[in-house]
Amino acid sequence: MTTNSYQFHRILIPFDGSLSAKKALEWAAHLARAGGMDVESIALIRVIGGSYLARHIQNVDLRVTRMDQVAAWRRVRQHHLDHEILPLLEEGRRFLQERGVAAPIETRVAEGKIGEEIIRVAEEDGYNTIVMGRRGLSPLKGMLLGSVTRQVSSLARKMTVFVVGHEATCDPGCPISPLLLPVDGSEPSLAAVRQGAALAQGFKAGQPCLSLLHVIDVAKLTASMVEASALMHEGERILADSRHTLIEAGFQGMGEDKLQIGDPARVIAEEAEKGNYPLILMGARGLSSLKRLVLGSVSNEVLHRASKSIVGIVYL
Description:
This protein is α/β, with parallel strands linked by helices. It has 11 helices and 10 strands. The chain has helices at residues 19-35, 50-56, 71-98, 114-124, 139-145, 148-155, 187-201, 225-248, 264-274, 289-295, 298-305, and strands at residues 10-14, 41-48, 105-111, 129-133, 159-164, 179-182, 210-217, 257-262, 279-283, 310-315. Helix 4 (114-124) runs parallel beside helix 6 (148-155) and helix 6 (148-155) runs antiparallel to helix 10.
């Protein structure tokens, strides 16, 4: 695949009608229009989770072993689909079409644990991009209580997940600019730079600014000036390699390189807010699902801190 190949050609959008979900639809429309004919398919999905069961459980005779065989349960479920779920998904489809999305748009309904079902459908049907809204949880609640967003990010493989908060804003003319690309030299990081370059091609007429940021983890610094100097040189090399990727894609002189010291997630989030970056696109390290879920990672912490930016995370 060449540097300029458009990456986001099959897009899955979890949609529940919330403000953040509508913001996610808007961003998905930008992605689809940027990709043009390269975008093969878009799907809107609504997963019926535990809240649906809780609301309607009183209508079911729990003495019956197989609830899916109860006529009353089937009627309640079908009514819920016909009068709530399907009209909502159709509203989302019209929203995308009205914004100029030409790719085929389908609607899907699934049942189960929401995050797990989103990933299952994405993997089984070959969706390489998920665009989803997030609820307005504080960083602490997001980290401790968990969320659909966190579950999806812990399970994602071989796809890019965009998370759109209700505070996120962007310029419709060039919604990706300025684009912040945090880099650490890892393969997921380089993949994010390549995807950023491919995305920027779709908005090249708007002369997008692509900024690279490498943060030297303050925890790695010691009293040794030799080691500190080595980390600085490594950071400069990482920035140079990433910039070379952007130059090869035709973005010479369209951005800046930044080398900073501190806590990586905190610095990235603060830089995004200070610079009014509408989009952060970064790679996720190759942690296991369990490690991502329990220990967290820089990308996940940025996800919770940077509430005013769209955060895209590339999972290899």
